[in-house]
Amino acid sequence: MVTIVIDGKKIKAQERQTLLEVARENGIEIPTLCSNDALKPYGACRLCVVEVKAGTMTTIETSCTYPVAEGLEVSTSSPKVIEARKLVLHLLLARCPNVKIVKELAAEYGIEKVDAFLRLENDYCILCGQCVRACNEVVQAGAISFAGSGKEKKVDSPFHLTAEECIGCGSCAFVCPTGIIKVRDVDSAADVTPEGTTFIGWERIIENWNRELKFKLCKKSGNPYAPEFMLNRFQNQMNLPAQFFDVSPSYRDYPEVDEELCIGCGACVDECPVGAIQLEEQKKEVKSHILPTHCCGCQTCLMYCVRAAIKVA
């Protein structure tokens, strides 16, 4: 543990935490447009800048990338910090004058319009990189990336063609702070060619990456529940039976442990592909326990239980 001071308040923090993390934990508001708990710190938007005093040196730093250290003194709203954020918001508002969250943040800092010479573009992408990072770090699809440089820099699919590696998960749209990434699910898609019309049915369309993906229908309910391309990718990567991908999560039968039959041998623990089972001591006896928040309903544990103690309700 280290002790730091934020806005005059002494705070205990864990080593390796960032200033932004510590501030949030203690109810201290710092604006940001590129930070997400599921992604590594990036420091793209520069809105989260704070004034940091370490020893005799005082600097302006991005709080999402700056690690805590013993004795740091931090100001989140000093005149220098406010000036820096206003500069960033002026540039963001010039680039994206119609983006709601940018307009709201700018208004908080008293900025309602920008100088005419700054109005070079009218975009909705603020280049925060959250979509690119989610696609590469979390989903690991690598379907999109930054292209170009300077004012020509943008997020795009390779060569502005169809993003063939996009699995249609929609993570990019979920993390986008401006809503510029559009994901649409249509129920009656069709391919129209000179040879005729081929009806596809349910399809997910991500316009930004020129991607169109057919949905797979749940074998139990008949409802569409995920793009087939995404499910095929997961099936190749995960140690799960093929039939697991035929049923949507809400229609899967999840297993339960019969504690009277369970001997706590741990076979199910070793074979669970998602780590959803652990051994727990109950009344001086060790029993298997299925974590409902982790279980994917694949029922692999049923095949390996030597006492048939795991059953489907």
Low-confidence stretches: none
Please tell me how large the radius of gyration is: 25 Å
**H/E element string?**
EEHEEEHHHEEHEEEEHEHEEHE
**First-last Cα distance:** 46 Å
Mean pLDDT: 92
β-sheet strand percentage: 25-35%
What is the helical fraction, as a range of percent? 10-25%
Would you give the CATH topology of the largest domain? Ubiquitin-like (UB roll)
**The CATH top-level class label of the largest domain:** Alpha Beta
Strand order of the largest sheet: 2-1-5-3-4
Q: Could you say which overall geometry the principal axes of the C-alpha atoms support?
A: flat
Number of helices: 8
Number-wise, the strands total 15
Return the domain count.
3
Main beta sheet strand tally, sense and closure: 5 strands, mixed
CATH architecture assignment of the largest domain? Roll
Overall structural class, as computed from helix and strand content, comes to alpha+beta
Brief digest:
This protein is 21% helix and 26% strand.
What report would you give on this structure?
This protein is an alpha+beta fold and 313 residues long. It has 3 domains: 122 residues, Ubiquitin-like (UB roll) (Roll), CATH 3.10.20.740; 80 residues, 2-Layer Sandwich (Alpha-Beta Plaits); 60 residues, Alpha-Beta Plaits. It is built from 8 helices and 15 strands. The strands form 5 sheets. The chain has a 5-stranded mixed beta sheet, with helices on both faces. A hairpin with a 2-residue loop joins strand 13 and strand 14. Helix 2 runs antiparallel to helix 3. The longest helix is centred in the N-terminal third of the chain and has 17 residues. It is flat and about 70 Å long. It starts with a strand and ends with a strand. The model has no long low-confidence stretch (mean pLDDT 92).
